[in-house]
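Long-time lurker, finally posting.

We've been working with 60S ribosomal protein L10-like (Scleropages formosus) and I want a structural starting point before designing mutants. I don't trust myself to interpret raw outputs, so I'm hoping someone here can both generate the structure tokens and explain anything notable. Sequence follows.
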Amino acid sequence: MFCNLFLAALEAARICANKYMVKTCGKDGFHIRVRLHPFHVIRINKMLSCAGADRLQTGMRGAFGKPQGTVARVHIGQVIMSVRTKAQNKEHVIEALRRAKFKFPGRQKIHISKKYGFTKFNACDFDDMMLEKRLIPDGCGVKYIPNRGPLDRWKALHAE
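Top reply, 14 upvotes:
Generated this for you. Predicted structure of 60S ribosomal protein L10-like:
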């Protein structure tokens, strides 16, 4: 089962959350990521409703409509927005996402992750993995370096 979220709703929620976060945390104190992309095109078969329209219309014959807009298809449990920030701004993030929830149809939950930022690694293990050089910074995320593989690559990484 899925729900359609229009591009306008996604944009309104992004603006709402961003405006509140800038006001409370400053423009460099957070990072919002919208995790949905509106790729699905919605079409409409317009019908005339004035007098004499019965000669112009063909009803459902050739009913492939004109594009009306784009939507993102959302499944139950799918993540819509993510925010990363410092731990002291946790209450501000919850309030920003609560305000953004009202822009969407249906019921949304705010989930506080145990992960570090937008990475897939737990926050409690993150610092240890960085010290062991099993994670290296890569853009706004990190790259995992496994303990297996060629020995010369491992030596080159740990020689620094």
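Before you design anything, note these points.
The chain has a mean pLDDT of 90.
The domain at 114-160 is CATH 3.30.60.300 (Wheat Germ Agglutinin (Isolectin 2); domain 1).
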